[in-house]
């Protein structure tokens, strides 16, 4: 990539690099047979980039997402997030990173079904140890930002798909994370709602949010400024495009 | 996540699944209710035995000289036979003892058996027939409500007069004045000279269904062979004096019976302590059996809760995944599920305490069994209940905490 120094083991990332993976690999033991889902992915993402990760199923994009999202730890290689080497942190330290640095948006929304929008958005703040009144205020503000201030007391099954995904976005952003990590965010939405959601992402990007989005739809990937394609656990292409 | 947060969350979850929660708490509920209830009965009996029973049956600072102990649980056959070979307490024994004690005491002869009392065509069965001397009323604290007790002259002369209990008077005379009326025992007429104040009941048995006639009156034939009494009652004015008097009585009886120093007494001096000993033995049995039953209920309750919690963990795998992805640490998840099982159990325990108290109140009202809730049992019940919840929750909660967030998130 132009403007990016090549990273070698023992280096530390440049200050404006949010995500840096170096020869990142992940093997799975599937009943005695080792599946090499990632075979050494080196990737650097700057602050305020909008990156789409593409690839056919089995290409390793989900594995990469899990590693970048600190839900999983690599078998080999390094992962630096905001200048902190997270590839060898403990479970609980990873939980803290997920809480503070990463906002997830899932294909299936993953909201708690019995909880109101407000409570769903509050969850990351609960685990961050924010006191209740402050928590409620911040969660309400996050819901306002996605245009759902009139749906705070609603439960997920009282909301449309698009509204649910907005609640999920509000929840992802409430702790002001360094990266917004979206895994097929439009997978369960119709095209009109998908376009609307892409509008929300574009706004967030304009406001300075770093976004990494996994998708297999080219027209969704087209919204990103940079597209990384994986194939067989390796980066196949990595190109910038006009948004 | 703070502890209070975990408990609040637990309440939310429990409220959302009321029926399931009720079932899961039922084991602990039963265990604790039983604990409180059973304990209240034992406790009530204890209070009753020490405060009323022993005092009623024997009397304060009083001992009985008898052939064999009256209140004895499971005696072996050989002991029983040995007791039956002992000589009885004779009139002469009683006189010698009464005259021999140098401590100021009051004494009374006493014998009892059951039999019928008739008035006109009415008949009361299974009445306690008692032969006694005049100080018996003082020793047993029997107050006369109507009429009078018999005099020393009547007692010595064996007059056919008697004092009867309130229930018996009610039954035979149905509100008419019993005084001066003639009742028959085994065909022999006795004149009613007094009715005793009502004494209530003891474990459901009326204490007011009796007649007391002079020991040497014809009633003697109903209660004992000639020249023999059941007991000589001796009442001192203090515990210390009672002990001293007991020593003297033992000496007098041993010399009268020519017992050598190595021989055991062939009579017994029974105090209210003896009765309490008997109760203590029953109490120990209850205390051995009761906790076992409580334990079984609590173990079952714990297993039920553990099962429900394992189900909850399985059902809420995705929720756990979501929470982990949002930054919940292992200990947060652990705390959440532990708080839930502990809260469930605590709810069961609190309901159990309430039911146990209700049970004991109902027992008190509806049966002669005295029950009184012990505060210790309430504290213990709640602690045990919550403890069971925590222990039962550890395994499911740690399973939840160990879940891999990726696997959990993918769970349908």
Count the beta strands of chain A. 10
The assembly state of the depicted protein chains is heterodimer
Q: Which consecutive residue ranges of chain B, at least 5 long each, have pLDDT under 50?
A: none
What's the CATH topology label of chain A? Rossmann fold
Instruction: Give the largest interface.
Output: A-B, 25 and 22 residues
* Overall body shape of chain A: globular
Question: How would you describe the overall organization of this protein?
Answer:
Chain A is an alpha/beta fold. Helix content of chain A is 32%, strand content 28%. Chain A has a single domain, classed as Rossmann fold. In chain A, helix 3 (117-127) crosses helix 4, helix 3 (117-127) runs parallel beside helix 5 (161-173) and helix 5 runs parallel beside helix 6 (191-206). The mean pLDDT of chain A is 91. Chain B is elongated and about 100 Å long. In chain B, the strands form three sheets. In chain B, strands 1, 3, 4, 5, 6, 7, 8, 11, 13 and 14 form a ten-stranded mixed sheet that branches. Chain B has a two-stranded antiparallel sheet with strand order 2-12. In chain B, strands 9-10 form a two-stranded antiparallel ribbon. Chain B has helices at residues 3-16, 18-57, 77-85, 91-100, 136-139, 152-157, 166-173, 220-223, 239-256, 272-315, 317-325, 330-366, 375-402, 405-410; strands at residues 62-66, 89-90, 106-119, 122-132, 144-147, 161-164, 182-185, 188-196, 201-202, 205-206, 210-214, 228-229, 231-235, 268-271. The model of chain B has no long low-confidence stretch (mean pLDDT 87). Chain B has 412 residues and is of the alpha+beta class. In chain B, strand 9 and strand 10 (205-206) form a beta hairpin. At the A-B interface, helix 2 and helix 3 of A face helix 1, helix 11, helix 12 and helix 14 of B.
Question: How do the strands and helices of this protein lay out in sequence?
Answer:
The complex is a heterodimer of chains A (243) and B (412).
Chain A: E1 17-30, E2 33-46, E3 50-54, H1 61-68, E4 76-81, E5 84-85, H2 91-101, E6 102-105, H3 117-127, H4 132-145, H5 161-173, E7 179-183, H6 191-206, E8 210-214, H7 218-221, E9 226-231, E10 234-240
Parallel strand pairs in A: 3-8, 3-9, 6-7, 7-8
Antiparallel strand pairs in A: 1-2, 1-4, 4-5, 9-10
Chain B: H1 3-16, H2 18-57, E1 62-66, H3 77-85, E2 89-90, H4 91-100, E3 106-119, E4 122-132, H5 136-139, E5 144-147, H6 152-157, E6 161-164, H7 166-173, E7 182-185, E8 188-196, E9 201-202, E10 205-206, E11 210-214, H8 220-223, E12 228-229, E13 231-235, H9 239-256, E14 268-271, H10 272-315, H11 317-325, H12 330-366, H13 375-402, H14 405-410
Parallel strand pairs in B: 4-11, 6-8
Antiparallel strand pairs in B: 1-13, 1-14, 2-12, 3-4, 3-13, 5-8, 6-11, 7-8, 9-10
Helix pairs in contact in B: 1-12, 2-10, 2-12, 2-13, 4-9, 10-12, 10-13, 12-13
């Amino acid at each position: 990539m132009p403007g990016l120094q090549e990273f070698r083991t023992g280096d530390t990332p440049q200050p404006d690099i949010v995500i840096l993976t170096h020869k990142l690999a992940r093997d799975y033991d599937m009943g005695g047979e080792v599946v090499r889902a990632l075979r050494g992915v080196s990737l650097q993402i700057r602050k305020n980039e909008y990156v789409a990760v593409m690839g056919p199923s089995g290409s390793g994009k989900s594995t990469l997402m899990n590693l970048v999202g600190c839900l999983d730890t690599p078998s080999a290689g390094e992962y630096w997030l905001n200048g902190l080497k997270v590839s060898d942190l403990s479970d609980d330290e990873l939980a803290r990173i997920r809480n503070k640095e990463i906002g997830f948006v899932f294909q299936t929304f993953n909201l708690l079904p019995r909880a109101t929008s407000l409570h769903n958005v509050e969850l990351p703040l609960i685990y961050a140890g924010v006191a209740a009144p402050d928590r409620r205020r911040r969660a309400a503000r996050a819901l306002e930002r996605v245009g759902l201030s009139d749906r705070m007391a609603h439960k997920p099954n009282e909301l449309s798909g698009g509204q649910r995904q907005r609640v999920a976005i509000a929840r992802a952003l409430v702790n002001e994370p360094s990266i917004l990590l979206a895994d097929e965010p439009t997978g369960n939405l119709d095209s009109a709602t998908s376009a609307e959601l892409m509008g929300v992402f574009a706004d967030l990007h304009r406001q300075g949010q770093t976004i990494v989005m996994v998708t297999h739809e080219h027209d969704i990937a087209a919204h990103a400024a940079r597209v990384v394609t994986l194939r067989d656990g390796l980066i196949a292409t990595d190109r910038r495009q006009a948004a | 996540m703070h502890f209070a947060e975990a408990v609040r969350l637990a309440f939310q979850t429990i409220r959302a699944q009321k029926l399931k929660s009720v079932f899961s708490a039922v084991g602990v509920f039963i265990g604790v209710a039983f604990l409180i209830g059973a304990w209240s009965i034992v406790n009530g009996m204890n209070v009753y035995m020490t405060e009323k029973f022993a005092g009623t049956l024997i009397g304060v600072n009083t001992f009985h000289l008898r052939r064999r102990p009256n209140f004895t649980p499971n005696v072996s056959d050989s002991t029983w036979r040995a007791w039956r070979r002992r000589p009885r307490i004779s009139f002469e024994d009683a006189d010698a003892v009464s005259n021999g004690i140098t401590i100021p005491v009051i004494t009374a002869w006493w014998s009892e058996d059951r039999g019928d009392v008739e008035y006109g065509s009415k008949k009361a069965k299974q009445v306690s027939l008692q032969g006694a001397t005049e100080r018996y009323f003082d020793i047993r604290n029997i107050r006369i409500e109507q009429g009078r007790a018999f005099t020393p002259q009547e007692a010595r002369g064996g007059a056919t007069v008697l004092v009867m209990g309130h229930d018996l008077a009610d039954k035979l005379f149905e509100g008419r004045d019993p005084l001066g009326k003639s009742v028959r025992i085994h065909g022999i007429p006795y004149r009613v000279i007094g009715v005793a104040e009502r004494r209530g009941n003891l474990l459901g048995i009326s204490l007011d269904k009796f007649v007391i006639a002079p020991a040497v009156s014809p009633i003697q034939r109903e209660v004992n062979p000639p020249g023999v009494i059941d007991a000589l009652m001796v009442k001192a004015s203090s515990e210390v004096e009672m002990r001293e008097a007991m020593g003297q009585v033992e000496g007098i009886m041993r010399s009268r019976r020519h017992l050598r120093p190595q021989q055991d007494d062939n009579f017994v001096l029974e105090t209210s302590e003896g009765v309490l000993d008997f109760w203590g033995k029953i109490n120990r049995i209850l205390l051995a059996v009761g906790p076992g039953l409580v334990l079984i209920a609590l173990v079952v309750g714990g297993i039920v809760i553990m099962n429900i919690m394992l189900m909850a963990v399985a059902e809420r795998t995705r929720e756990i995944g979501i929470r982990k992805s949002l930054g919940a640490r292992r200990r947060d998840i652990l705390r959440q599920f532990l708080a839930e099982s502990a809260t469930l159990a605590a709810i069961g325990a609190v309901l159990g305490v309430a039911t146990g108290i209700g049970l004991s109140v109902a027992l008190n009202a509806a049966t002669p069994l005295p029950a009184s809730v012990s505060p210790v049992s309430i504290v213990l019940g709640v602690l045990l209940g919550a403890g069971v919840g925590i222990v039962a929750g550890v395994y499911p909660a740690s399973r939840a905490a160990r879940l891999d967030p990726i696997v959990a998130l993918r769970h349908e």
